[in-house]
Amino acid sequence: MSFVESEERIALRKAVSEFGAKYGHDYFIAKARAGEKTTELWEEAGKLGYLGVAVPEEYGGGGGGIGDLAAVCEELAAAGCPLLLMVVSPAICATVIARFGTEEQKSKWLPGFADGTLKMAFAITEPDAGSNSHKLRTNVRRDGDDWVLKGTKTYISGIDEVDAVLVVAIQQTGPVLVVVPTSAEGFTWHQIGMDLVAPEKQFTLFFDDVRLPSDAVVGSPDQGLLQVFAGLNPERIMGASMATGSARLAVSKAVTYAQQRTVWGSPIGSHQGLAHPLAKIHIEIELARLMTQKAAALYDSGRDKEAGEAANMAKYAAGEAIAAAVDQAIQTYGGNGLTAEFGLASMLGMSRMARIAPVSREMVLNFVAQNSLKLPRSY
Amino acid sequence: MNIVVLVKQVPDTWSERKLTDADHTLDRESADAVLDEINERAVEEALQLQEAHGGEVTVIAMGPDRATDAIRKALSMGADKAIHVSDEALHGSDVLATAKVLAKAIGTVENVDLVIAGNEATDGRAGAVPAILAELLGLPQVTQLRKVTVEGTTIKGERETDEGVAFLEASLPAVVSVTEKINEPRYPSFKGIMAAKKKPVSTVTVADLGIDASEVGLSGAYTQVLEAAPKPPRSAGQRVEDGGDGGSKIAEFLVGQKLI
C-alpha cells in the first residue's frame, strides 16, 4: 500500500499547476464577470492532453485513469481555474462512452474528448425527481430505427458551450443513456439565473419529441442503470477534486494574508484565533484529498462498489472542507474578504455548491447510513 | 541535427536562498529545487530546431541525485535522452571545473552539431560556462542570443545589448547561449510526462569521464568564499508628502535616479 502518488502523477500535478498559474484566479473571475467562457484555457489544456488523460490511448488519449483526471481538475482549481465542465465532459461522458459505447460510438466521440475539441454536457436531474434515477420521467421510445426523446431536465451545466448532451432517459427496460446533439430539432433550453461567479451557466432543457438515430443510445439499452452509476462515481471524484483544489486556493490566500497583515506589531497569523481554524481546515482538506485519491484508485482498479462508497465520502468531506475554507478565508481577510479585488467573495457561491452538487450532503449521509451502517431507510 | 542542451537544477527563485554555514556553498535543503527557467527556454529552442531539422536532443546536467527531477522535466518537454553527471566530488565546483566536466560529458555524445545553454543560471549567475566550454571544445561561441536560426551548416543569431543588436554567424558545430527573450517554453504534455520515464538517462561519475577528482569540487576551485552575510533588509524608502507638487517631486526623484 502506498500513500504517495506515482512520479508521473506528481509531475502531472506540477505541470498543470504551472500551466494553471499562467491563467490564474483573476483571469477566471474576469471571464465569469464578463459573461465569457474560459475558451483559451480549455483549448490549451486540451492540446496538452490534460483534458484527455483518462481517454484510452487508441483514441488519442493519455491512457491514464480518473485519478489523473482528478489531479488535473484539482490543480487547475488550486490555480484559481475550477473548470466545471471537466466534471461532466471528460469525466462522466467520456468514461461512460469508453466503458460501454459501441466501437462506432467510441471512434466517433473519444478522439474529441482526448484533445478537448468536443464538449459534452450531462443531464440527469429533473424538476420533480432531483437525482432520484428511479423517479425520472424523461422518456425515450423506439420509432422504427429511430429513438424519440421527450421530457425536461434542470440544473444542467454548460449547455450553451457543448456539442452534445448525454441524457439519462427512461425506456421500457429501465434507464438508458442517450447522446443528443445540441443542434437536434425539438431540443430547446433556457438559462437559470444563478448568483454564482462562474463562466459555466445553468440551464433547464426541453426535449419535445426529439428524433434521434438508432446509434444515439450508448451501448446496450439493457445496461443503462449500470452505465449511469459508472458515470456518477467519476462525477463525485471530480466534484471532490474541484472542491479540494478551490479550498487549497482559499487557504493559501488566507495564509499569505495572515502572514503579511500586521496589527499591533505582529502578523495576524500569529494569533491562535486565526491560526487554529486555518490549521484545522488544512487538515480537513488533506483528509478529503486522501479519500478522493482512494476513491479514484479503487475506481481505476475496477472496484466500482467500493469506489462508490469512497467517492461519496470524499465528496462529502470535500464539500465541507471548501465551505469551511472559504468561510474562514473571508474571516481572516476581514472587510477585504468581501472586496472584488481579493476574489474571495466570488468563491462563496461555488463553496456552497460543492455541498449540494452533484449529490447533496444529506443524500450522501442517507447513502452511508443505509449502505455502510445498514440503518433502516427513512424514505 | 544533434543537439546537446545543458540544464541545471537551481533553488526556486521565489524562495529564500541560503548558503550553508559549513562551506558557504548553496544550502540545497533551504529551497525547492526547479529546472532553471532559462534552461527551459534552452530546451524549448532545441526542440524547435529539432522539429525543423530533425536529429536528436540530449540533455546534460551536472548536479546531485535530485537533479534527476530537472532532467525528467526536460525529457517530459520532449528531449530524447539525458546524461547526468553526479558525483560527491563535484560539490563546490567553480565555473572552470564545471565547464571541464561538461566538455567531457559532451564528448561522450556522438556527432554533436550544436550545444545550447542558458546565458546564466539564476543561482550562481557567473554567466561564464558557455564561453569557457566553447574554448575547451575548440568550437565557435555565439552567446547571449535572443534569436537562433540554422541554415545548412551555418548558425545565425541575434544578440541584444544596450548599444544595439548584433547579428552573429558561425559554422556548425558551435556553442550557443540563449537569453530569456529567446522563446516561451512549452508545458510538458501528459504524453510527454508519461514518455519521460522510459527515456534513457545515463548517470556518470567524474572518474567515468576520465577526470581526476582533485581537479573539481571545492578543493579544486580557483576561488574560495571566506565569508557570507545575508543581504540587509530592504530600507523603508523615501516618503514624499503631496502638497500639491507631488507630480514634480516624483519627476525630481526619477531624474535623480537617472530613470527619466
UniProtKB/TrEMBL annotation, chain B:
Reported cofactor(s): FAD
Alphabetical keyword list: Electron transport, Transport
Coiled coil regions in record: none
Family the UniProt entry places it in: Belongs to the ETF beta-subunit/FixA family.
Assembly notes: Heterodimer of an alpha and a beta subunit.
Keyword Electron transport listed: yes
Record-linked Gene3D superfamilies: HUPs (3.40.50.620)
Pfam families: ETF (PF01012)
Protein name, as recorded: Electron transfer flavoprotein subunit beta
SMART domains registered for this protein in UniProt: ETF
Organism: Lentzea rhizosphaerae
Database matches in PANTHER family: ELECTRON TRANSFER FLAVOPROTEIN BETA-SUBUNIT, ELECTRON TRANSFER FLAVOPROTEIN SUBUNIT BETA
Highest taxon of the lineage: Bacteria
